[in-house]
Amino acid sequence: MNLLTIICDIIQNELSLSDGQVMAYNPDIPAPTTPGLYVVVGYISGKAIGNTAAVKDEDTGISEDQSVTMLENIQIDLMSIDTSALDNKEQIILALHSDYAQKITETNIIRIFRIPSQFNDISQVEGHGILNRFTMTITVNAVYTKNKVVDYFDDNSRSVPPTIVAD
Predict the structure, then answer these.
(1) Could you tell me the CA-to-CA distances from 73 to 13, 56, 76, 128, 137 in Å, in that order?
(2) Helix (H) or strand (E) holding 88
(3) Domain boundaries in the chain?
(4) What is the pLDDT, as a whole number, of residue 128?
(5) Is the confidence at residue 140, as pLDDT, over 80?
């Protein structure tokens, strides 16, 4: 699962929301037209804080294990045409640190920081649309791994001999 899907799954599960009420961001998501809470999860930015590669000699051959550790900023938007967004904004924070969330994040080698970096009322952006809208930014520490078989060179047949240039 990718990071946005994991966060969507946690929120949907913990708040008992239906399919279509929690989704990963895409530019074609319409504003809600029915009462209830709607949540959109999107990627803002990321920063690599670690990058490793190690070669292992195993019975099946030589493999390379690579990993990169990222700090990623994720935006979570809550929207409603009623007061559901206002009434449930704190529930998102609770959902992200529930027992269910802990199990999912440990399985996927991620850690959601406990306190959002910001939480803003952006209802005024909608103007006369009367849409209640809140946005929060969370930071996630995620580790991405890759393992692949690498060629083993047991002779120098593939190396290029040095060229000597005389003056």
Answers:
(1) 22, 33, 10, 30, 6
(2) helix 84-95
(3) 3-149
(4) 56
(5) yes
Residue among 161, 13, 11 at smallest CA distance from 75: 11
Q: What is the pTM (predicted TM-score) of this model? A: 0.82
**DSSP count for the chain of H helices, then E strands:** 3, 6
Nearest to 136 by CA among 84, 97, 79: 79
Strand partners, 61: 58
The architecture that CATH gives domain 3-149 is 2-Layer Sandwich (3.30)
56 strand-pairing partners: 63
- Cα distances (angstroms) measured from residue 56 to each of 64, 143, 145, 156: 6, 20, 15, 21
* Reported confidence tier of residue 167, pLDDT bands at 50, 70, 90: low
**Which residue type occupies 134?**
F
